[in-house]
Hints:
Blueprint: H1 2-10, H2 14-22, H3 26-44, H4 47-55, H5 63-80, H6 87-98, H7 101-104, H8 107-122, H9 132-143, E1 149-151, E2 154-156, H10 158-171, H11 179-186, H12 193-205, H13 215-225, H14 231-252, H15 255-275, H16 277-293, H17 295-298, H18 301-310, H19 314-339, H20 342-347, H21 354-364, H22 370-386, H23 408-426, H24 431-444, H25 451-463, H26 472-479, H27 487-496, H28 498-503, H29 505-518, H30 524-540, H31 571-587, H32 593-609, H33 614-625, E3 645-648, E4 651-654, H34 658-675, H35 684-710, H36 729-756, H37 760-787, H38 790-793, H39 802-814, H40 821-828, H41 831-851, H42 862-882, H43 885-889, H44 898-916, H45 921-928, H46 931-944, H47 952-968, H48 974-989, H49 995-1012, H50 1016-1030, H51 1053-1087, H52 1093-1122, H53 1131-1160, H54 1167-1179, H55 1181-1199, H56 1205-1223, H57 1225-1247, H58 1267-1276, H59 1285-1292
Helix pairs in contact: 1-2, 1-3, 2-4, 3-5, 5-6, 5-8, 6-9, 8-9, 8-10, 9-10, 9-11, 10-12, 11-13, 12-14, 13-15, 14-16, 15-16, 15-18, 16-19, 18-19, 18-21, 18-22, 19-23, 21-23, 22-23, 23-25, 24-25, 25-27, 26-29, 27-30, 29-30, 30-31, 30-32, 32-34, 33-34, 33-35, 34-36, 35-36, 35-37, 36-37, ...
Amino acid sequence: MAQRILALAAEEAPERLQEALQSLGEGEVRRCPAGRVLLAGKGRGVRPVRRAKAASPRVRCSSHGVLRRLQLYKHCVLLVESGDLHLGKVSEITGLLMLEVAHLLPGHALAELATLFVDVIKGGSLSNGKSLELFSTVLTALASSKESLAYGKGELNGEEFKKQLINTLCSSKWDPRSVIHLANMFRDIPLSGDELQFVVEKVLRMFSKLDLQEIPPLVYQLLLLSAKGSKKTVLEGIISFFNQSVDLEVATMPLDQLRHVEGTVILHIVSVINLDQDLGEELIRLLKTEQQKDPGRALCPFSVALLLSVAVKHRLQEQIFDFLKTSITRSCKDLQFLQASKFLQDLFPQQYDVTAVILEVVKNSAFGWDHVTQGLVDLGFSLMETYEPKKPFGGKAADTSYGLSKTPAQQACRLGASILLETFKVHEPIRSDILEQVLNRVLTKAVSPVSHFIDLLSNIVVSAPLVLQTSSSKVTETFDNLSFLPIDTVQGLLRAVQPLLKVSMSVRDSLILVLQKAIFSRQLDARKAAVAGFLLLLRNFKVLGSLSSSQCSQAIGATQVQADVHACYNSAANEAFCLEILGSLRRCLSQQADVRLMLYEGFYDVLRRNSQLASSIMETLLSQIKQYYLPQPDLLPPLKLEGCIMAQGDQIFLQEPLAHLLCCIQHCLAWYKSTVHLCQGTEDDDEEEDVGFEQNFEEMLESVTRRMIKSELEDFELDKSADFSLSSGVGVKNNIYAIQVMGICEVLIEYNFNIGNFSKNKFEDVLGLFTCYNKLSEILKEKAGKNKSTLGNKTARSFLSMGFVSTLLTALFRDNAQSHEESLAVLRSSTEFLRYAVSVALQKVQQLEETGQTDGPDGQNPEKMFQNLCKITRVLLWRYTSIPTVVEESGKKKGKSISLLCLEGLLRIFNTVQQLYTARIPQFLQALEKAAFQIRQSLVNQFSSAEDDFNSRETQSLITVLSTLSKLLDPASQQVLHNLRGVAGIGAEAFSKDIACCKGLLSLLFSLHVLYKSPVSLLRELAQDIHACLGDIDQDVEVESRSHFAIVNAKTAAPTVCLLLLGQVDKVLEEVDWLIKKLTSLGSDTSGNKSEDSSQASDQTQALEKGVILQLGTLLTVYHELVQTALPAGSCVDTLLRSLSKTYAILTSLIKHYIQACRSTSNTIPGRLEKLVKLSGSHLTPQCYSFITYVQVRPKSTVAKSQSKEDEAAAISTVMAKVLRDTKPIPNLVFAIEQYEKFLIHLSKKSKVNLMQYMKLSTSRDFRINASMLDSVLQEHNTEDAENEPDNNQVRTLCFYQ
């Protein structure tokens, strides 16, 4: 029979085929198509199937026809999934069966066929998934069927039957090989919202069971499926999977394979978002919501990379960047908040850092993530521009390039620079774009600070100078605009591109051409830029034979620079090049003072780096100084000062900075004598020439020294009666003369001390020079004090170098050599000279703190500056601790004492080290040995001294120094604990009525305490002391006499200690409020998370709840003491009332958290919360109402003391105004209490625990006018005088609270 059917199917006779099919019995129907017809179709294509299908419609209504068609479909499905057919024939068969399935099969047949599909999927029999196209058609037809279909023991309509099938399908086990086909199938099935959610969750759960390479196509199918809905679930599942895959990458999959898969998935998501904008909006909403709960889950490297890829679409870029910038600053603020509190660090040992995540994205983008790079570049520049250094109005922008990023804005700006730098290193195609944008911003932001962009440019050049040769044209274009840039920008830009000049001749030649044009410019800034550029070239293009640059302050750190300048130029050409530049610079010695000043300050560095230019530079300096030097040995003064100034109309200008010229000569000569002889040439002519100018300089400096000591002020046309005001030409000229003479004296002081070799005669010369300097200094101070001029009050910058200052201080205070004693006694005999030496050290440290460098040799060398700081610190610390201030001040005439100057110097040094040398703080502290102990001991001595000997100013300085020093210590070190115990001991034993000292000591105690543990126990003890000192609000109650801290006494308790205490309480409340917000996010996250992490989150939640309740419980005891204290009217009462309102608001937030917890889980409230509620009901709320009554009633007795009617009316007006001011926070406090009790009632209902049993009935406070009290006041203060009418009206408007 089967052979006959096959033959008829092959013929063009459908009628005969139909008759043959009708003649088949039921058993034959079941056997024949399966056994012969369909199997035979493998060789003959789909013709038998098509013929059989064509014959079927004619008997559509008969049961036999339905059975035949059903058997045909079943066996076709099995055949298609058997894997025995070619894919082309499979597609033909599937397409043929799909055409009229809804018309050929009734509902029960569709249900049977659909059940077959489900069984095939559950059995894992799908081979290619082609039959699933038919399955989707069957389910769609089944959903529209109106027949009642048998299901179990009952019946269901087609739609419900389809739902049951989908539920069965998604609840069964899937073969990982068929997941992609199933996901694709569901796209063609109409699904309700719940069904779609069920399907999506099932597919997401299958991610972990698939091979890594199968994830991208499955993700793409899911994204297409999300067009129906459940976008949030799809995105959340994808991000969560790749966030968790970071933990598994090392153990289960290669890193590069994972990164490529992530990149492909991101591309799929971006492509779908381009078609469906709602998916992009949903992504941003999802991450914003998750970021509030758990930033670590929301912003992982995968999600950040995804956001940056999507940000290329300009419609979403602004939203995404705003979100990322907010997340970055919030993360920085949270980290800063945690670092300031040991209590929070213990509860949050590891805090999420979004900056590390973004830098990891840059690192991951090396694995072919080209679609992320543009977003990274845009984000980097956006961060740098949004959080760039701000320029204050009328001032100079703070340069943070040499310091530590402290504020969140500074950290965000640094992050932007790091993103761009790392992206530049990783991605070669984007390098030219980054470089061009950086250079454009340096050029166009002439008004705004550009130091952060210059630092970035410097790092870029150092990282790859050879690579930048391909972009040298952009650098040369920038050089054309040097003349129009501020000098600071020019110097920074030239320093940044310095390594590029070493490897690119074209860049160097273009720079020289620009500089040669600029040196003849009319603009002063252009000429200064030219000088800066030429000095840079001289420092870095060494002539062969020059000394090594081991002492250079700015060593080139580009390891990629393999080419040397000598490979391109021979020695003669290079030397000629440098000499040509020197010739151009000599022309600048006839220009303005600012240009000359740059030359004098730069010659020393050129000489040290390019020693073969020594002869030319020294000859240039010699010819310049000879223009002002008077060689006659007896002529006074030895220098022509009148040649240093220039008159233009009625204005006087400095033309030649003579002191700077002499300073440059002194430093160059000292370096030349000590260094250049080591590599001196063998030619006698050169030696004689070098010795010639060396001898000339020595004789000249010796003669100037001798004659300067002999000179009187009148020889310089200066005396005490001269005009030094800056408003007249004569005054300006005298100021210029005085500053030049003082500078010359300082230069000669350093020169003679260095060459003196501890000679008594030389030290006498030093003292003589200082006498001349001091006379002029005193005159300028006196004139400045009289004129009260801002410019006059500025101290002239010292010409002494930092290295010499450290050497001088060490010799004056710490040199105990017997051979030096006699000579040093000359200098030590002058207290003014000792004070001057310490003052100059203070000035140098201040300059280093503000600018990151100092004037003079090695001023830009961080290593040398750090060494000098250590030496100066040891000397100042020894000087202060060895000689008591009391002894010193007994013979002091005027000015600050040396000890106070030493303290001020220590304070500035500690600040400078914290700002500039963070990495070297341990080395610095090691050099100081027991500095903290010595300062604490000095503080103890101050507090234990007699009242007449107590120096408040010195004590405040000691406290500030100790506080700053404590910031340098590692919070985890034992030194912090020693400091805490020491300061606590001082506060407990030191009785002082000095307000400022008390405030400083307690502030220090608080700052140390938070580094060790929470300060709530300390706050409770202080509150008890305040209560004991001020008494109780109930005069009949005798307060127990307790004194934990002697520093708290009747003089300091209020308002000083009270306000400090409440300020610290507010900080603790901020921490508690922050923790409660974290609790809320953890609670909402745990309630929706049913994974294994929920138990860990629950443990963390319990730890946080315990910490919050313990903090609040102790704070309630603090308030318990304060609200019973008879605080004076004013700021203390007002601050306390506001603080109480904040406390009740936080208590309400905690209760709301437990209400939410009771809704989501069946957990009962913990016993510690009951204790907290009980404590608030017994120890705080009743006392708060008593304190409110105390605040309101107290003014009445004050008014009653007035006697005369006029005085009485004025007193009423004043006191009542104060009443209104003091009682303004009272309604807010009462409202906060009532809100707290309201939510307690809600929690009691939810938890089935009666928490209100601990709360007493509140006093009725409806804030209406109390008529009886108002009448009594009006009767007492009634007056018949009409002039007092306004006052009475004012009284009538007052509200007295019941």
